[in-house]
Fold this sequence. Notes:
Blueprint: H1 19-33, E1 38-43, E2 48-51, H2 53-59, H3 72-81, H4 90-102, E3 107-112, E4 118-126, E5 130-137, H5 139-159, H6 190-200, E6 204-209, E7 214-217, H7 220-225, H8 229-232, H9 237-256, E8 262-269, E9 275-286, E10 292-301, H10 303-349, H11 355-380, E11 389-392, H12 393-407, E12 412-417, E13 424-427, H13 429-446, E14 451-462, H14 464-470, E15 475-484, H15 514-524, E16 528-534, E17 538-548, E18 573-576, H16 580-592, E19 597-600, H17 603-612, E20 618-622, H18 631-641, E21 647-651, E22 669-671, H19 676-690
Parallel strand pairs: 12-14, 18-19, 18-20, 20-21, 21-22
Antiparallel strand pairs: 1-2, 1-5, 3-4, 4-5, 6-7, 6-10, 8-9, 9-10, 11-13, 13-17, 14-15, 15-17, 16-17
Helix pairs in contact: 1-6, 3-4, 10-11, 10-16, 12-13, 13-15, 17-18
Amino acid sequence: xxxxxxxxxxxxxxxxxxxxxxxxxxxxxxxxxxxxxxxxxxxxxxxxxxxxxxxxxxxxxxxxxxxxxxxxxxxxxxxxxxxxxxxxxxxxxxxxxxxxxxxxxxxxxxxxxxxxxxxxxxxxxxxxxxxxxxxxxxxxxxxxxxxxxxxxxxxxxxxxxxxxxxxxxxxxxxxxxxxxxxxxxxxxxxxxxxxxxxxxxxxxxxxxxxxxxxxxxxxxxxxxxxxxxxxxxxxxxxxxxxxxxxxxxxxxxxxxxxxxxxxxxxxxxxxxxxxxxxxxxxxxxxxxxxxxxxxxxxxxxxxxxxxxxxxxxxxxxxxxxxxxxxxxxxxxxxxxxxxxxxxxxxxxxxxxxxxxxxxxxxxxxxxxxxxxxxxxxxxxxxxxxxxxxxxxxxxxxxxxxxxxxxxxxxxxxxxxxxxxxxxxxxxxxxxxxxxxxxxxxxxxxxxxxxxxxxxxxxxxxxxxxxxxxxxxxxxxxxxxxxxxxxxxxxxxxxxxxxxxxxxxxxxxxxxxxxxxxxxxxxxxxxxxxxxxxxxxxxxxxxxxxxxxxxxxxxxxxxxxxxxxxxxxxxxxxxxxxxxxxxxxxxxxxxxxxxxxxxxxxxxxxxxxxxxxxxxxxxxxxxxxxxxxxxxxxxxxxxxxxxxxxxxxxxxxxxxxxxxxxxxxxxxxxxxxxxxxxxxxxxxxxxxxxxxxxxxxxxx
Length: 699
């Protein structure tokens, strides 16, 4: 086992060691041989003093070269000759590296070997004695970093501008083999030098005898267990790990007692309640006679790696849930189109009152609420298309406060602080109401014994000096503060509040989606949100929304009734929809608006009709259809043949991803479910674009 016991002075022979010192020195070298990193120590000349087995494995040096006294220059020249430093003048490559070595300065570089392996190389000087070189294979670590980077990039591309991050959901990478702390200090004896190296490694290194008693432990045990390493030596594994973990560790030791190398993971709870994870390797020390004398133990902290893996799984889960939600929304929207269309048609043909009021009106109201619920569900998947308007925020908050006073418990007092002058924001009013309701319910749950809930509105200007910090463009905003006098939130929980499925409520009391939906809505609306809380003193949720100008009278004019008629056209409307029942409802609406209708069940049939019937006046087509020609391709073909034809696309999908490619076509898209007056307005809009109305001049 002994390779060399160097002298502090390279010009003098190494001092003789006692058998106990030799045993201890061999024990330290054996510990170094457990490491995956390669370690070599060079004296001041510089020549090789000692090394571990990983040096041969990682660097592929010939065994006859790796010996005590080999000059450092011989290793450098060998590497240069086999292309380790790239192309260039051989002597220049060697001299540059020898000059750097003789400077005895700390350094760290990463180098890719010709075989594709990436090595992290750290050099640490030992004043007046030489230097230590440490090589770490970081190939897998860099590959894993690239996988995580690509996954994060894909996830950010999907959610686009709705959220810039998932609260460190896709950012952590565990360091299974972290960088070695700088090895420094004046070391007089070789044993002390090796001890310092081992203590500087961010890992737990120990030797345990056959009776499971520690004979050696490095400083990592102090940091991990909170026990001084001097107190570890002489204690049993059971007393260090405790009765809870010992059955797991003891089981692994029994396997190692058979002479087999063992690798396993375990988790333990530290004083602040945090759970930490470790991966351990047990290598039995076997005598020449085959008897197990003891065990070398190496453990590394993999807590960050576990967190990174969990974040990656969570990101993939959220992506899958979002895709599932979008698909379900398409099917539900088609069903609601049929239901609402039939009910609306029946309502328009029956006199008011009687059965209409008792049965038909509630059914139609429930169907419309179903459509609204689909939109709210899509907020969770970040796939919802918002319907922003210019909203007077004070009026909306005033109305919501009245609703909250009736809805919350009697011991919760609702207050508002509204500005003297109206403040307007360009926002989806339904989603703003939903966000305020979510925050109010959270505040209520935080005040089981009652308290005060205050909603305040104010103006806010974001200057250039704050723009980057708050992740918002420079400009004017409407600020909304929702404050409660509840129990407050612990500081360590604040960064996780907007994570999907995270909740502090008891099991069954909350889904953990409320604040995630609020966050998604605010960010999608062009604003931002933050939470301030003091345990025992309450919580304030502040969010800002882009401010808008006061709307004109035309912008606030109410929509027309369902009896609205459409502009006359010279030919029929071609309706393309693959769902027969949905097609029947839209045909019925078009007929009620005064249009004659030609129907097609897919894009292929529709294209044949467009080529054969020259007097088709309007094309109304679904976006996603089977049969070889989808809505986008049908629009492109129609534009090439009939560029003047007005076109309206319809879809049951609610996400922007499902509509990818339609923006380039510059065609309006009407989302299902829609009613007759909405369809009429959409048709009027495309007809106005194609054939603008010319007003007669004043006489």
